[in-house]
């Protein structure tokens, strides 16, 4: 990748000079994932790793809610995001005021909020969850009914794995909602040996035709462990690109969808971020303490 080399070199040099650490989500492009990231992972792993960081500066290569989670867990450190506009359709789907109304409507019902939300929303919630621990988080309550927001499809997928009544919201991931069971079945019909692996943000009809469903790291581990000869990752496109060099002999079949928010993070922007020490993530102290509690409860939950 000669075109990336000067950026990779400059970022890694500056990262050392500044004493910064780069946390990158599994959806970052291969040149970020393999060449400049210090730690890669799914949302839960990145949140857990954020509690262990020694460096005073964290550069979050991912979307804004991920950087906010790192900042919540490291209030005294500098958390930078290379493009402040890197959002998320799930995070955009709900506000703190919406959650307050839900709590009025369903008094006493525990509120589980997906980490793909703003700190404002997390502050109104009992505990956070990610795609890798959502069932365990929901099961951690005695209550028969649990609010699991804002991802409707994640909630419906969780509801299939628990006896609890799950109430939800109408938020969707704009990347995963585009996959349909019909298109996947057509691939399966053409080649029954193909393994289909999906993310729980997909519609339950899509998950029903998958051989495995799990978080982004769950999917990566499945491919590394099972070594299917042909596999279709029902998720963001960089996932296949990031692991194909590590799983020789596995053929990755399209389709995949790009997350435009994740793709806002690029090598030139990471370099600029380290050069100018921007853009810095800040959280209103009035909401930070309550939001942190929800994230910490999730991290401390044994599962
Ligand atoms: P994971 O927690 O599985 O990494 O998912 C994050 C995400 O944004 C998926 O769209
Ligand atoms: Fe949000 Fe979907 Fe992008 Fe993940 S893939 S960051 S859920 S829009």
Automatic annotation (TrEMBL):
Pathway: Cofactor biosynthesis; NAD(+) biosynthesis; quinolinate from iminoaspartate: step 1/1. It is found in: Cytoplasm. [4Fe-4S] cluster binds at residues 88, 173, 259. Its cofactor is [4Fe-4S] cluster. Keywords: 4Fe-4S, Cytoplasm, Iron, Iron-sulfur, Metal-binding, Pyridine nucleotide biosynthesis, Transferase. One of its GO terms (molecular function) is transferase activity. Its EC number is 2.5.1.72. Catalyzes the condensation of iminoaspartate with dihydroxyacetone phosphate to form quinolinate. This is Quinolinate synthase. It comes from Pseudohoeflea coraliihabitans. The gene is nadA. The chain holds residues 55 to 357 of 357 of the full protein.
